[in-house]
Specification:
This protein is mainly alpha-helical. Helices cover about 60% and strands about 5% of the residues.
Length: about 450
């Protein structure tokens, strides 16, 4: 560890932030006995200390993203354990377990995605894994569904496609120098493959009736496309730009024109004239945000906990009602800082840059869809806020994707063309070199 004092101060900052939230629970919370918030406090602080200790076994250039991750995860544990009444049982324990899973997935993502050459050589396996997820969705989720039910466990295979799609975009970035003449265009075969994969994902989301998640995949694809334009020696022609823009416009018009009936209803719904139908969740969410004000009604004192999907699809409004808009904005601010760290500390290769851009684009769009949908600024989509909303598959995948971001800060770059060798190290101290004396014969 390069700076033990900085590491210790960061640990204390996270512990104090969680302690302040827990104090709010003790003072203003709605609970039956003091044992309920006490158990919650013990679980949160135990997870903090355990993760801080586990991080010591991983050599990294920076731990900033890790501290922000455990900060926001335990914030969500406190939120989810307070909706309706402060308690740490049932769904609260399940969310706590998924938070632990997200931390483990972060470490796995960090280890897997650090080395560009390893993933580059196994790029075909990434496409195979995406194909397996698609087959599982078509065969095991039931009639046009997106969930696989295994006893009490529900899995959403489409969530696992997100990091795989990001890796497919990142590992193919170096192929931009391998152009082939097709008709009047110089094309890259990998770009055609990614375009075809994006088209398959669009069809899959339509088949699953989950068009709300489609903007997230589009954000990943567009960020990868923009980085391909900036790639050295890419030299894309104006015809390519015009063709891509025209194709995107045509797809948007077709999607808007032939959107399913339930999407059309949401696009043209007046929530205040249909408060018991399509506008029920959004109208209740807006009322809850207004009732909560800046400081909230207090943990466990809200009404929105009686509305369906209060813990995931409209979780932003639920937090605003019980904790206040200040806490909700603080939560979003922490996530945005976590995504901004790779921009402050630039990645060391185009592979890592493409990977971090894809992760940041996916999370940003996903948060915007949930928050703006809850506030009735856009049609309601039903997507979740990463790390805050309840959900096993999304929590696990989000943790893995944050591990991808961590890997961009401490990468392993093998001796490949255009890449540096070995992981970056801090500058060594200058050594006094003694002159070499020539020996005379």
């Amino acid at each position: 560890m390069n700076n033990p004092v900085s590491y210790t101060m960061s640990c204390l900052f996270v512990l104090l932030a969680h302690a302040a939230m827990l104090a709010n629970v003790f003072i203003n919370g709605n609970y039956n006995t003091i044992t309920d918030p006490a158990i919650l406090a013990g679980a949160v602080l135990l997870l903090d200390i355990t993760y801080f200790t586990a991080l010591l076994f991983f050599k990294q250039t920076s731990y900033t993203i890790d501290f922000l991750l455990v900060l926001v995860l335990n914030m969500s544990v406190i939120f989810q354990s307070s909706f309706g009444k402060v308690k740490f049982d049932g769904d609260a324990i399940k969310h706590y377990i998924t938070a632990v899973t997200a931390l483990i997935a972060c470490r796995i993502g960090f280890i897997i995605c650090r080395n560009y050459k390893t993933l580059q050589n196994k790029r075909k396996l990434i496409y195979i894994a995406i194909g397996i997820c698609i087959v599982l969705i078509l065969t095991l989720t039931g009639t046009r569904s997106m969930w696989i039910q295994i006893g009490p466990i529900s899995l959403q295979p489409s969530e696992f496609i997100k990091p795989l799609f990001i890796l497919a975009c990142a590992t193919s970035i170096s192929e931009q120098q391998k152009k082939h003449k097709v008709l009047l265009f110089n094309v890259v075969y990998e770009n055609i493959a990614l375009f075809g994969l994006m088209a398959v994902i669009c069809l899959l989301q339509w088949w699953c009736a989950d068009l709300g998640s489609l903007p997230t995949f589009m954000a990943i694809y567009i960020s990868a496309f923009l980085l391909r334009i900036c790639y050295p020696k890419a030299k894309l022609s104006k015809k390519t730009y015009i063709t891509a823009a025209a194709a995107l416009l045509v797809v948007a018009v077709i999607a808007f024109k032939f959107a399913p009936a339930y999407v059309q209803d949401r696009l043209h719904a007046d929530i205040w004239s249909d408060t018991n139908g399509n506008g029920y969740q959004q109208s209740q969410a807006l009322i809850a945000i207004a009732d909560g004000g800046w400081t909230g009604k207090g943990p466990g004192n809200g009404f929105l906990c009686n509305v369906v999907a209060h813990e995931n699809d409209i979780v932003f409004a639920t937090i605003c009602e019980e904790w206040g808009l200040l806490y909700a904005l603080m939560m979003i601010f922490v996530i945005l800082i976590m995504l901004a760290v790779p921009l402050i500390n630039p990645p060391r290769s185009y592979y890592h840059a493409t990977m971090s851009a894809g992760v940041c684009a996916a999370f940003t769009v996903q948060m915007a869809l949930n928050i703006f949908g809850s506030c009735n600024m856009i049609p309601f989509t039903g997507v979740t806020i990463p790390f805050i909303s309840a959900g096993g598959s999304s929590m696990m995948v989000s943790g893995f994707m944050i591990g991808m971001l961590v890997s961009t800060q401490t990468p392993v770059l093998d001796n490949v063309k255009g890449q540096m060798r070995s992981s970056p190290k801090l500058p060594a101290k200058k050594q006094n070199k003694r002159p070499v004396r020539r020996q005379t014969v």
